[in-house]
Amino acid sequence: MNAENTELQAEPTDIANNKGMAILGYILFFIPLLAAKQSRFAMYHANQGLILFLALVAINIVSTIIPVIGWLLIGPLANLALFILAILGIVNAAGGKCKPLPLIGGFKLIHH
User: Fold this and answer.
1) Domain carrying residue 47
2) Beta bridge partners of 2
3) What residue ranges are annotated as transmembrane (predicted)?
4) For residue range 31-85, what is the model confidence (pLDDT) as tens digits?
5) For 53-61, which contacts have Cβ atoms below 8 Å and span 24 or more sequence positions?
């Protein structure tokens, strides 16, 4: 994993042609990997979606292992926070921005 907090500069034509794929990256991160692998913009948002998905899986595993406080406090609050991050990512993608998500957006698993 590579932590970086700089914005990617994507080409305007890439952004215009792949906004839909970038938005889908936050819902099903693998769709841009299959349908728009030539797009740096879509790959950037697919990476953000993958990091979000992995964080969601990790949080839900941890919150189910920890009895009561995990089930009633950690799980719901963490899932709400990740949902808000997903909405923020979708807004960034729709606006044509490659801005990293707070806390988790600096990690790079997919090269773009």
Assistant:
1) 2-108
2) 108
3) 20-37, 49-74, 80-98
4) 999 999 899 999 999 999 999 999 999 999 999 998 888 888 999 999 999 999 9
5) 53/29, 55/82, 55/104, 56/82
